[in-house]
Amino acid sequence: MTLSPEGSDSLASTVQDAGFKIYFGNCDRLRGLYSVRRHILAVIDQFQPDITHSHGVRPDIINAFVNNKTVTFSTIHNSLNGVYKLKYGKLTGEMMDILQLAAIKRIRYPVACAKTLAEELKSNYGINTAIVSNGIDLSVFNGTSTKTKKELLIELNLPDASLVFVTSGALTAWKDPFLIMNAFTASAIGKKAVLVICGDGPLREACQKQVAGNPRIYFTGNVCNIKSYLMAADYFISASKIEGLPNAVLEAMACYLPVILSDIPAHREILAYDYRAGILFDQAHSENLIRTLDNLDFITSDTGLYARKVIKNHFSKEIMTGKYAALYEMACSQSDRERGLWPKA
What we know:
Elements: H1 12-17, H2 33-47, E1 51-55, H3 57-63, E2 71-76, H4 83-88, H5 90-106, E3 109-112, H6 115-125, E4 130-131, H7 149-155, E5 164-168, H8 177-186, E6 194-198, H9 204-210, E7 217-221, H10 226-232, E8 235-238, H11 247-254, E9 259-262, H12 265-271, E10 278-281, H13 286-293, H14 303-314, H15 317-333
Parallel strand pairs: 1-2, 2-3, 3-4, 5-6, 5-8, 6-7, 8-9, 9-10
């Protein structure tokens, strides 16, 4: 069930081709939420599912009102203390935090996508959650290509540089693309390497304006072939200020890319499985990333192998779906009195 119209990168047809029915909504953000809630509740009454599982603020708000009709789950993907403020401004962001927190407290089974996020929810709000880490499709992000790096660079209209850095994701304040651009421009390696910025967002125009004339920084906008860019690159960079558990980083590591990551809880959680898979830098000042870029001696021929191994052993889609299946079975087998009581953290 969707709330808003699908974008150009929708996977709806893939889901439908697999034999599943989708109920499409036409809700414009928070406006119209009441009417779409009534529609969804009517569909639930008709369909009578065993479980409703929501992702995000608006779905969580609606899911909170079906608690007496189905077993309700919610996966929390972001911190409730920062992302929305950075994305929508202080007032709107705080309102969204409050609304989602209230909704999550009414949902029987909240699930955090990362250990660090579960710890935050417990310590800040007293919410016990299960933990199911995001999972990557290793058959798609398999680190193999029928084309050489040089052929991929030509196909992607990128120069045949000795080193290629790539970053992907929304161009927003919490992703801090300016830090990456500034450090790359000021570094010695930035004089001979290439930086590819995949993604779009409210900061794109400002980003392009700031580095206008730099022939070594490329903006792609949103792409549907991110694997090609990862396979053409030598390193992946993320300077995020806050994350739940970033799929962009996991996808890069699945493609054998060493990762250069800001020192935040979500990134530490990933590299804690094997710190040989990448490096953390203190994002408080751009000088820290500059030094990291100009001192990549930690990279060995095995670094990418360690990165891939972390994903295969801890962040595959098979591991993720297996954990969700176990939680669903547990929840549906519990009595009404037991439901909604995760083991105490």
